[in-house]
Each structure stands twice: as C-alpha cells, then as structure tokens.
Amino acid sequence: MPDGTTTRPELTAAAGALEVHLLGLVDFDSALSLQERLVFDISGRDDTRGALLLCEHPPLITLGREASSSDVAVDPDDLKALEIDVRWISRGGGLCVHAPGQLAVYPVLPLERLGLGLDDFRSAFEEALVGVCHEQRVPAKRSADEPGLWSRGGQVGFFGAAVKSWVSYHGMFLNVDPDPTFMKLGSRPGRDERVSSLRAHRLKPVSMASVRESVMRHVAKRFGYERHHVYTGHPLLKRTRRKVCLHA
C-alpha cells in the first residue's frame, strides 16, 4: 500500500453554493451526458457555483488514458455473456470496474475560479474522501505518486478525473459494498492488485446513505463551499434502459 501524504488546509470558502444531486443507480452514458451538460453550463458562468453528482452504475469496465486492454482480466467472450461492456473513456487514470455498491463521485467545479490547479484539485478531492473513510472507521490513505485511496486490505478508491475549459468532470469511485466478484474483473500488472471496500475492512454492512451524506459534507468543506443544497435526481438526466446481468 502506498505511503499516505500529509493533509492540506481546506480552501478559502467559495462565494457560490455546491448543488448536490443524488441520482441513484444510473447507466454510465446517462451520467456522462449530464456531466457534459453541466460542464457547458458552468464554463459559461462567472461565479463559483459547482455541482456534485453521486450515483451508482450497473456493471461496466472503463479504461482511462493510462489503461491498457491487457488490464482486463476476463476473456471478452465471458464479458459478453455477462453483458458487461468495456469502454475507453477520455479521463485520467487506468482501469476501473463499476458495479452497484460502488459510489461514483462526480464533482463538476470551476477550478480556475476556485483558484485551483490540477494538483490542488486532486489533493483536495482525495483528502475529502480520506475524511469519509475515516468517518466510517476505515484508515484509508492517499499517495503523492499514484492517484487513489488505499486501506490495509487494498485499494478502496479509484481516481479518474478530467478537465475541460477548466471545469472538472468524471471523478472518483469509492468501493462501499460492491459484489467482490465484479471487482476481480480487472488486473493491474506490476502493481498491488488487491482491491477492497469499506465493508470488507469493517466486516459488517456499511450504509450507502451515510457514505453519501459524508461525501457531500467533506467535498463541500474541502473545496471551500459554505453552503450545499441537496436534490434527488436532476431534470436534465435522461436514463438509458439496459438489462443488467448479475452473477448467480
């Protein structure tokens, strides 16, 4: 497990508010389309208002700019039988396996107007989720060299963000209580391949609702938002229906 870095102070409070949207279980394409709409909207503003999307995804494997097709540990025919797609995504980071029980955390923030560089953004974001893990009594750490969060049992948080017009999108994925079978679909050659979750560390169920509440507080605090407003869903979200094939 990589060594943790020291934490940094929270940013100065932003003038705008953070709009938090709880989307539930939503397909990846619908969530990405909503993020792109929000990036367009926020990039055209002159204030510091930001958005935070919290959701879970049906089973899917995404590959970022640092990934390789060899990172996928399962034969393509087996993935096809399970109806699990593999997608190349224009974001940072490598392979990430998505499944219900993993919380997707998508901050869509005007970085330049918040006075944030790319390293500042990653640091504040990861430290926010470190705080969430600590509230759940999971001693996770971040690394200065490799994006993500690690506990003693393995990696629990995966970083894969992108920036367009100095507005962030994509984000991080926190393993709360996913099916361990899905988490074994990816390999990480040359690295510590252990993947863990908050539940695996605590050996008992973890409330997704409590994790979401903690995430919105810690993200708002780390990025300097004194106010955050919480909504269920989003009027611009258009869901795509698809069959979800789960392991027996």
Please describe what this structure looks like.
This protein has about 250 residues and is of the alpha/beta class. The chain has a single domain, classed as BirA Bifunctional Protein, domain 2, CATH 3.30.930.10. The protein has helices at about 30-45, 75-80, 120-135, 180-185, 200, 210-220; strands at about 20-25, 50-55, 60-65, 85-90, 95-100, 100-110, 140, 150, 155-165, 165-175, 230. The strands form two sheets. The chain has an eight-stranded mixed beta sheet, with helices on both faces. Helix 3 runs antiparallel to helix 6 (about 210-220). The longest helix has 18 residues, at about 120-135.
Note the topology:
Blueprint: E1 18-25, H1 28-43, E2 50-56, E3 60-63, H2 76-81, E4 86-88, E5 95-98, E6 102-108, H3 118-135, E7 141-142, E8 149-151, E9 154-164, E10 167-175, H4 180-183, H5 198-202, H6 208-222, E11 228-232
Parallel strand pairs: 1-2, 1-11, 3-4
Antiparallel strand pairs: 2-6, 3-5, 6-10, 7-8, 8-9, 9-10
Helix pairs in contact: 3-6
How large, in whole angstroms, is the Cα Rg?
A: 17 Å
CATH superfamily: Bira Bifunctional Protein, Domain 2
Q: Please, what is the average pLDDT?
A: 88
Number of domains: 1
User: How many helices in DSSP terms?
Assistant: 6
CATH fold topology: BirA Bifunctional Protein, domain 2
CATH class (first level) name: Alpha Beta
- Distance N to C terminus: 32 Å
Helix share, percent: 25-40%
Tell me what the CATH architecture is: 2-Layer Sandwich
* Biggest beta-sheet profile: 8 strands, mixed
Strand order of the largest sheet: 7-8-9-10-6-2-1-11
Order of helices and strands: EHEEHEEEHEEEEHHHE
